[in-house]
Backbone:
């Protein structure tokens, strides 16, 4: 029996489906943790080998074979180490979301996740069977309780582990980012540690996977719920904490470095940057194209793209029409100059005129309306997609959550693209993020932040011509989308009933648009994506 167990938390950025690549990362991280940090045990995130979430890859026979080969490789190459890795475990009775303790090349213990989340972005019951109880294993004289993510959110698993003699809890996770999520995790873990009187080590995945971003923020907590180590968010790393046995035989983690908590704007911005970076790089795109308008949404998107990929990988394009103001042209040019990106100005006027001329006979006798506005947006999209196709760079769309909610966007126009970085950011949050980014160094002209928002698709147009002020619109949308409140409940908060009813009707009527929108980074409690599954065709009223 030893009096110390040095546990490393390997906060890795993995690639879903790249089983052999993920196995290689486990091997490299383990060797580094052993040789450089003196680790006795290395913890890896949930479903390490497959990446998270693997979705319907789990149903492919070839994928099962790769998982089995990856696990065998770890056993062959890690004969002098102890690791806990997550993997989909295939059995005759179904698939389990499992954690394997591999020690000296042998599988010493397996824990099958007992609590399967089936809410928000999670649908694990589609894929996995639930395990029966937590696993407690012996390692260097320490009794360690193995848990997987949701297990720690419910009290029973930790209590059963304690009853089976566990002296510390080891929790492997793939917990996606949303605003205030780290606070929720630590509050939950603090309650669990105090309930059972055990310290715990919590390792989390980091990186972007489609619309999800995993923020890392791995931590170690003592039996009193005090955080003694917290890994930095949004970056990879391996962090060691010694767990020692005190004079009373209790296992106590030693204090380490505690990364500071980020403000809301910093954490959201970090998630957006990581989400864009990983989506572009994991798909192998050489860069991105961003259409500028001189407005706040495209300005913020451009800043995120440059921070994520570097200016050499970003092409910015301004596409003026007869309605584009000199102010917009000047502001777009100024921002492109500040960031040092490749910048082009391509007029849509000729395309717009040609389209109107072609349709002149069909439009005869009909007054101009939103049709002509949408044609401009689709002309711009032809140019942007042409550049994207020719260069191989992916097109980023620039729409925000407020617009997506009420359909204030053009289908096959400004909605078209490969990825939508700010699609889960309300308009008011967009302004806060712009101010935050400028506080780190000015990259968005102040006039862009201060001027009234406008699509500039007709003379004198402003967003407020079609929508309530964002100070009214955004709280109504948040109450409906994220809190699931009714018209009556929102009205009780002081909002005008007619305005509220109109906004909610717009949300309902524009589901068909949102279904055709590109994916984008999820940062809120409920985004238009994996955790929003409303029917397009519906007669429901509320």
Residues:
């Amino acid at each position: 029996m030893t009096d110390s167990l040095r546990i490393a938390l390997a906060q890795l950025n993995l690639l879903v489906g790249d089983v052999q690549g993920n196995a290689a990362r486990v091997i490299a991280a383990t060797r580094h943790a052993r040789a450089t940090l003196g680790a006795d045990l290395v913890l890896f995130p949930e479903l390490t080998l497959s990446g998270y979430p693997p979705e319907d890859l789990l149903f492919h026979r070839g994928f099962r074979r790769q998982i089995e080969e990856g696990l065998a490789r770890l056993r062959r190459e890690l004969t002098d180490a102890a690791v806990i890795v997550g993997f989909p475990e295939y059995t005759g009775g179904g698939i389990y979301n499992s954690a394997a303790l591999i020690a000296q090349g042998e599988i010493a213990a397996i824990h099958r996740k007992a609590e399967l989340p089936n809410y928000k972005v999670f649908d694990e019951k589609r894929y996995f069977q639930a395990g029966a109880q937590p696993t407690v294993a012996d390692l260097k004289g320490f009794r360690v309780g193995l848990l997987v993510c949701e297990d720690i959110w419910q009290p029973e698993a930790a209590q059963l582990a304690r009853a089976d003699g566990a002296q510390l809890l080891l929790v492997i996770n793939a917990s996606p980012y949303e605003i205030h999520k780290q606070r929720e995790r630590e509050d939950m873990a603090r309650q669990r540690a105090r309930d059972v009187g055990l310290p715990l080590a919590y390792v989390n995945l980091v990186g972007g996977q489609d619309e999800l971003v995993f923020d890392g923020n791995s931590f170690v907590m003592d039996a009193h719920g005090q955080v003694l180590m917290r890994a930095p968010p949004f970056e990879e790393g391996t962090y060691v904490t010694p767990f020692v046995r005190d004079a009373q035989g209790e296992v106590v983690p030693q204090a380490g470095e505690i990364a500071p908590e980020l403000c809301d704007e910093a954490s959201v911005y970090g998630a957006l940057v990581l989400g864009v970076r990983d989506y572009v790089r994991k798909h192998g795109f050489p860069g991105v194209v961003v259409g500028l308008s001189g407005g706040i949404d495209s300005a913020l998107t451009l800043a995120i793209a440059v921070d994520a990929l570097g200016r050499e990988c970003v092409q910015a394009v301004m596409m003026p029409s007869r309605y584009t103001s000199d102010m917009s042209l000047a502001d777009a040019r100024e921002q492109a100059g500040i960031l040092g990106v490749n910048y082009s100005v391509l007029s849509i006027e000729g395309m717009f005129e040609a389209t109107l001329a072609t349709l002149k006979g069909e439009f005869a006798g009909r007054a101009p309306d939103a049709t002509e506005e949408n044609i401009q947006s689709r002309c711009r999209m032809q140019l942007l997609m042409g550049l994207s196709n020719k260069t191989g760079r992916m097109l980023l769309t620039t729409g925000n959550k407020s617009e997506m909610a009420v359909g204030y966007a053009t289908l096959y126009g400004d909605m078209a693209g490969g990825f939508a970085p700010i699609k889960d950011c309300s308009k008011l949050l967009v302004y806060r993020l712009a101010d935050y980014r400028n506080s780190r160094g000015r990259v968005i002209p102040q006039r862009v932040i201060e001027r009234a928002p406008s699509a500039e698709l007709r003379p004198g147009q402003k967003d407020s011509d079609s929508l309530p002020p964002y100070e009214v619109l955004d709280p109504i949308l948040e109450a409906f989308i994220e809190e699931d409140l009714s018209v009556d409940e929102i009205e009780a908060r002081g909002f005008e009933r007619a305005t509220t009813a109109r906004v909610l009707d717009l949300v309902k009527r524009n589901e068909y648009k949102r279904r055709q929108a590109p994916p984008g980074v999820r940062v809120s409690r409920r985004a238009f994506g994996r955790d929003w599954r409303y029917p397009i065709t519906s007669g429901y009223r509320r």
